[in-house]
Amino acid sequence: MILTVDIYSRNTWWKIAFLVFCVLVGAASLYITDKLVSKLEEREKQQIELYAESFKYTMTSDPNQDVNFFFDKFKQANENNTIPVILKNGTGYLESNNIEIPKELSSKEKQEFLKEKLDEIMRDDNVPIELDMDFHKEYIYYGNSQLLNILRYYPLFQLLIVLIFGFAAYLFFDASRRSEQNRVWVGLAKETAHQLGTPLSSLTAWVEYFKTDPSFDPEIVKEIEKDVQRLDVITTRFSNIGSVPVLKDENVVETIETFMSYLQKRISTKVSFTLDNQLQSHTTIKLNRYLFEWVIENICKNAVDAMEGVGALTVVLKELKNNQIAIDITDTGKGIAKKNLSKVFNPGFSTKKRGWGLGLTLAKRIIENYHAGKLFVKHSEVNKGTTFRILLGSGETE
């Protein structure tokens, strides 16, 4: 049996497994490195304790010995040692090992320099080793070696790399999934437009035939012709999906009036339509008429469904102070709950039993991606209604 994994699906077991794997790698790295750091820290401590015992023995046996001589011997015995060490004698005088001191400093300046270094070393939280001499006490302060510091912070860096890699991989697969889905939808839309072409041509021919036959009511033929034209518009919409739309100067009021006139005759007579045009006459906007009508259609049909065939639908067109044109579409339907306001434009979200929940998603994409405008819920109140607002760029008056 061959096991296949759908990397484009929204929720699959492999994503959880990948996330768990990244976490386990990070946790294992932290655990192992922490153990190594602890062992290295203990080893360095033992080295300093050994040095302290040797130093104490030598100093109490022969106090005339040169301190720097024993530092050199200690350094020779530990060729790879990089542990910074400062010895503080009973008078407060400081000597150092594995600390680079600028040569141009005077004796007093060297002491000030070592005092600053001593403060840095004490930040490593290593307990200083006390040397109990015959008549006074001396202290050996030591810090962490460069290797120990690197190992201490390395796992955090490694964990960060693992998390970045995991996040990048997730974004890659998510983008691949969405890209694949987009290609499928585009292909499906274009194929649908192609398949509609043949019966549409036939219907157009039949309409022309009905026009010449006096036995058919001209008004009925006219409405049938509108439906056929509507199918032609829908076919054009689907064929435009996936292509860069061409925007032309269109009379926005005329565009909305045409659609509302068409829709009004095909829904319940208990829904009243009102168009409140506050724009200057013949105001035009850069639009793709086919796609823009699709937006108005989706919003209006959602409004009619929300009113369950009874209510009022009002469209208000006005110009704002920033030269933008606002189109407010208000219904008296059931409204949108606050918890759903942020979801209404999400693909697949729908409160209806039928439909795919793509209408508002598509409308938002058409307005914002193709027309550089905005589409949002301006106001909604449960059981009272909803207002959607469309904002488009500045209009021109002929």
Beta-strand content estimate: 15-25%
Total beta-strand segments: 12
What does the largest sheet look like? 5 strands, mixed
Which second-level CATH architecture of the largest domain applies? 2-Layer Sandwich
The level of helicity is: 40-55%
Overall structural domain count: 2
Mean pLDDT: 77
Q: Kindly name the structural category.
A: alpha+beta
Distance between the termini: 69 Å
State the name of the first-level CATH class of the largest domain: Alpha Beta
In the CATH scheme, what's the topology name of the largest domain? Heat Shock Protein 90
Low-pLDDT stretches: 1-10
- The largest beta-sheet arranges its strands as 6-8-9-11-10
Pick out its properties.
disordered N terminus, 12 strands, 2 domains, five-stranded mixed beta sheet, four-stranded antiparallel beta sheet, alpha+beta, elongated, Heat Shock Protein 90, 398 residues
